[in-house]
Prior knowledge:
A: alpha/beta; 5-stranded parallel β-sheet; disordered C terminus; B: 8 helices
Amino acid sequence: MRFVDEFRQPELISKAAEEIRRLADPGRHYRMMEVCGGHTHAIYRFGLKDVLPSNLELIHGPGCPVCVLPMGRIDDGLAVARQPDVIFAAFGDMMRVPGTQGSPLEHKARGMDVRIVYSPADALKLARTNPDKHVLFFAIGFETTAPSTALTILRAKAEGIKNFSVFCNHVTIIPAIRAILDSPDMRLDAFIGPGHVSTVIGCRPYEWIAQNERKPIVVCGFEPVDLLQSIVMLLRQLKAGEAKVENQYKRVVPWEGNRAALRAMSEVFQLRSYFEWRGLGFISQSALRIRDEYAEWDTEQRFSVPGVRVTDPKAAQCGEVLKGVLKPHQCKLFGQECTPEHPIGALMVSSEGSCAAYYNYEHRKMATANILIQTA
Amino acid sequence: MAHGAGGQASRRLIEGLFAPLLFHSSTEPLTDAAHLEINGARLAITTDSFVVKPLRFPGGSIGELAVNGTVNDLAVSGAKAEALVVTYVLEAGLRTEVLEAEVRAMAEAARGAGVRIVGGDTKVVEHGKADSMYVTTTGVGRLLKGVAIDPASVRPGDKILVSGALGDHGITILLARGELDFEADLASDTRSVLPLVEALIGAAGPGIRWMRDPTRGGAATSLNELARDCGLGMVLLEDQVPVRDAVRGACELLGLDPLHIANEGQFLAVVAPEYADVALNAMNLAPGGDGAKIIGEVREQPAGSVLVSTLYGGSRIVDMLVGDPLPRIC
């Protein structure tokens, strides 16, 4: 497969692994955070931790837009969808995320009209083909997915489609990174920078991390070669005492970002003054809401939304895992009360969630430690 | 819904509710078919329901699945299907030509599989139920000589074989639903695996420990069940697992693992190491068996789990499927 196989070649990977071993100072313990949940999953899926030296620790960041959504927002969306003749449409990722009364899939089993869509355009199509119903699109994602939501709202307006609204939970990545760096219990050496968010916002927004916080950051792709090459680039910076923003994912990420996407976003969205993030608390200017000119397509303006704040169960340590303070298996509920089949928090079911990555790929390996695999 | 997906929830439903109440013994491992001895005749019997949307798809239809699925369940239990009975639950308003097409497909599939359809039942339910039609087939067959399948006989060092490329059926269905905006040159792999099973038994009968057809839940679920039943580890070599490019591509795009995708014309076998090469040879030479491969082996660790060894000396655990495979966002 093009754009995939070239970046999975075993020879390149062993070369990169060798270079990492050469560059890593044995007297130092490196702590690098991969912000993006997609990177966490890639690391586990390709078994990359097995090729890294033991003094290089990867910390999982909060870059999972489903995981950082407080349960109350899911309840809100489902509350509106409970009304007659409403179709609840969302990405596959949202379907197993638990609200206080169950996940969207559980609501579907109880009779709610819940549909998986692969893009907001599909949700708009549902509105076109079901004129007697109202389609509620539960929008999530960082700046990665916000532009397509924006374009869909613009299209809804242009076509005069009235039976469609967006329940907007888009959040922005920079405040999340800032919250990590402001956290007193976090000590990090460098960042593996988010890949797909950067295709929209570009690399400039990360400059303060290098200049003010003096931490190197490399914007990274999702294939094994990408991840290892980014780690090489970070180690080189650390060795030279440098701190700058570099772009390893050049084939996809333009330094200046995507102007058209940013324009569409600023046309339709504005920043909320504050928004609650699971684990990180209330952060100002960190989430998007739909501008008043597009109120007709804003679920929160068309329907009355309960807006109840729901705190996570006391024993759940989603917040600490999201911040990277705890590894998933260190949460008391991991693998016991909280599993992919009956999750307490979204981290265990989201495809970007670090608990899900750990559970699916790693945790039984740890129980039978040090397995030596000999490839035939 | 998760209870029907073939993964963990399904297993709990069977082990927790059905087995203790219905089965004579709830401690024996669950197999694809039940073995009976009646007046000296060694028989196997199995049943399966088919619920698929859309009814017709590239490579087949619900009718073929209904015949091949039951023939295959018997085959991997070491039995040759002799006769099937079939139940139709039809939705009121179903067009006659649709029903006729499926009945013809079943007749054709039965002919191809060498099995007789000897009876059945039909019920009609209200419009809005049964998704057009549900089909159940129950099959009975004679146990083949020369093979004794028992997960307890699995040993470290045994080899894991697959009869051909994984993931074709499930991805074909996903694309046939038309919800995704892409297409691929793919068709369901539905077929009777009996000829390949017979070839395998002929060459390596005494060395066959276990066989299964990985339908819903995919190869990962079947191997996890075996790992749990025998308390050993299944270690697969990622680059040896045969997957067509189109399936790999679709899985990459959707964030799915080919090991979790349903198959309707493949089977897995665990074979003693001294028989592995001759087993593979026999399968490769049999019609439709050229894609068969050795994909891994049984080891002591990780006990009770399935491990996939990646190309770079790394590894990951592959669990049983939880719920339905859901495509991801970004």
